Every structure is written in structure tokens, then in C-alpha cells.
Amino acid sequence: MDDDAFWSLAMLSPLQYENSRTKTADGRDCINFNGEDDIADTTTSTSFIILPPHHNTSHKPLVLNLHTNQNDGVLSDIASSIWDAGLLLSAYLYGTDEGRKLCYDACFSNHASESGILELGSGMGIVGLSAGAAALSVHSERQSNDCRSIARVVLSDLNNKQILSQLQKNVNSNLDAIAYASNKTDSEKKLLSITAEACDWMDVSTSLNDDADISSNTKNNFPCARFNLILGSALVYFPEHASACANTLFYYLTYGRSINKESGTKNDSIMERKAIILQLVDRCGFSTHFLPRCRSLGLTIISQDLDPELAKMVQQSKKNRTISVEDYRLYFITPPV
Q1: How far out from the chain centre does Cα 200 lie?
Q2: What are the C-alpha distances in Å from 34 to residues 76, 95, 143, 221, 323?
Q3: Which of the two residues, 55 and 152, has the higher pLDDT score?
Q4: What's residue 10's pLDDT?
Q5: For residue 221, what are the CA distances in angstroms to 23, 28, 122, 201, 203?
Q6: DSSP character for 15?
Q7: How far apart are CA 323 and CA 85, in angstroms?
Q8: pLDDT digit string, tens, across residues 302-332
Q9: Between the CA of residue 211 and those of 121, 207, 216, what are the distances in Å?
Q10: Which of 10, 136, 175, 176 could staple 182 via S-S, CB 3.0–4.6 A?
Q11: How many Å is the Cα radius of gyration of the chain?
């Protein structure tokens, strides 16, 4: 199946899916993962190896075994393979000093209390899992004894039972691999909490447009929390959802913002936040809808080419394609100044 056929499937409305919703303790809609028995397990696993920086001799390659869907229907292409954008962003986060530091700072820096990393449109979860491994790896390198809080990494996707169930399965089956690559013991790996949650961009966008108090609404289909680093790979591929994606970035980049009335300065922790999007620039709606909407919201955007070496840092157990970096760019998006 070609890319455009995939994207057309990926953009099916959530109303077209048969969702199974339950309630959290605070009354928020969520997916019931306890009902996995009624989902036929027709998955297979594929191994991916992500190399650490070449000069790093203290850490091992990250080996992730990701379950892919083999069913026809809604999951047939959404969660059945890893796309090049996800592989390249994973290589940047785990395999470069810059990416590793960003992940560590988001989870364990002074501004990271009750914060962490959020991946949007996780699919099979390779980007979020790589980010978590990068944060733990740097934590080991620095021999940090700071265990004041547990860092959070949230992998998110459509509020669909099958999608989130498979995503959580990938999280659970790779926790030991992340600890091993990061030189963490079983007890130390608990420094990082990795979960799968629903994040409906249209709900975020609607709430923003209604000027509602989002944090107090228990019916949201998205995490109402602070994250220092927001990640996404090939998020935009359709004009109709591009603005909602930009609104979602704005929401998380400015969540809980406050301004000092005397000085007029913004909360320091807000200014530490960053979104990293790795994107095919020619995707429909990206340049015409997503980027203009980000700028209209006051977000600052800086882009850069990818290092061709990134393609060499990710290996797939079934080496059936060559990864090219030429058509991709990294976008660093920060809160309004």
C-alpha cells in the first residue's frame, strides 16, 4: 500500500470506530485495557535496534520488539508498521547527544517536577519508548541520585480500544529492554513511568475554541497535564486536522502558564518547553495549514535538515527498505515569547 492510501485510512473519523469507553477515578473517559480478551490477538513482533552516540561506550544499543497488527480494518495500516519518520526521530532522540539531553531535561531537570514527555500520534510507540530510554540513559551517565519524583512519558493516539491496547502492550513488553539499554536495575527502572493514553486533537481544539477551563473538564479525551517535551513524527498529512494538531501543540506548550503581574514575565517552566516534530515537508496541509496556524498562535518555529548519519543508527530486523533523510526536516517549536 502506498503512503497516500495509508494516510486516507489513518484519517478515518473516530466516530467510525467502535470504541469501548470507561471512566477514570476522576470521571474522565478512557479506554478499558482490561477488556483485551475480546480482541483477537493477530499481532506479530518486529525488532528495531537504535544505536547510542558512537562515542558513548557506557550504553548499549536499544533493542525494541514492537507488536504490529495483522488484522484487516481500522488497524491494518495505522499500527502495522513503523514509518521512516518515526525511525529517524527515534535515532535523533536516543542516538545523538542533543536529543538525549532534551529527553533527560524534560524528565529529570529542575523544571521537570510533575512533568515529562508526551508523544502525539504514537502508533506503535517507537518514538516515545526511545525518548524514555534516552532520558534514563543520561540519568545513569550522570550517576544521579535524585529520586524525588517519577518521570512521566505518555504515548498517545486515537481514543480507540484496539489502538491503545496494542500501544500499551508495546510499552509493557519493552520496559526491561529500556532498563537494560540504560544500565538500570529492576528497581531503578521505576524512575520512569511510561503509559498509553488517548489524545484527541479535535477535543483539544474544540475546548480551546470554546475558551473553556480544560483542566477542570473530566470528559476530555486527552491528558490534562504539563509536559516539557512534546514529540511527533509525520503528524500532519491532511489539511482538515492540521490546525487541530497545531492547537494541541499550543495547549501543551502553554499549559498552566502564568505571567508575573509586576514584571510581565512568563513562568520560567513554560519557556523551558519544546516540541520536536519530524515531518515530510510536502505532506498536504503542513505548509498551508499547520505552520501558519502555529505562527498565528504565537509559537516560534525553527527547522533544520537531518544529519544523514541518522539513517545508519536505526536497524530493522527485516531489512526491507532503505531510509532516506532528504525529504524530512526537524521542526523545533517553542511557546510564545
Answers
A1: 13
A2: 22, 35, 37, 18, 37
A3: 152
A4: 39
A5: 11, 7, 15, 9, 7
A6: G
A7: 9
A8: 999 999 888 888 866 546 667 788 889 999 9
A9: 24, 6, 12
A10: 136
A11: 19
Distances from the Cα of 145 to the Cαs of 57, 142, 149, 184, 191, in angstroms? 21, 9, 11, 12, 11
Q: Using the structure block, give the residue that is written with the C-alpha cell 510533575.
A: 114
| Per-residue cell: 4 | 497516500
Identify which has the larger pLDDT, 23 or 216: 216
User: Residue 296: is its pLDDT beyond 60?
Assistant: yes
What percentage of the chain's residues is helix, strand, coil (to nearest 5)?
40, 20, 40
Contacts of 109 (CB under 8 A, 6+ apart): 228, 272
Reply yes or no on whether the pLDDT at 116 is more than 70: yes
For residue 165, what are the CA distances in angstroms to 8, 76, 199, 243?
Answer: 22, 15, 14, 27
Of the candidates 101, 125, 183, 117, the residue with the CA atom closest to the CA atom of residue 150? 117
Rounded CA gap, 113 and 150, in Å? 9
Select from 234, 231, 222, 210 the least CA-distant residue to 285.
Answer: 234
Q: How many CB atoms lie within 10 A of CB 3?
A: 13
Say which amino acid occupies 157: D
Q: What is the pTM of this model?
A: 0.82
Q: Is the pLDDT of residue 5 over 50?
A: no
Give strand pairing partners of 118: 154, 230
Q: How many helices (H) and strands (E) does the chain have?
A: 10, 12
Beta strands 229-233; 274-280: pairing state: parallel
Please answer whether residues 205 and 240 qualify as being in contact, where contact means their C-beta atoms are separated by less than 8 angstroms.
no
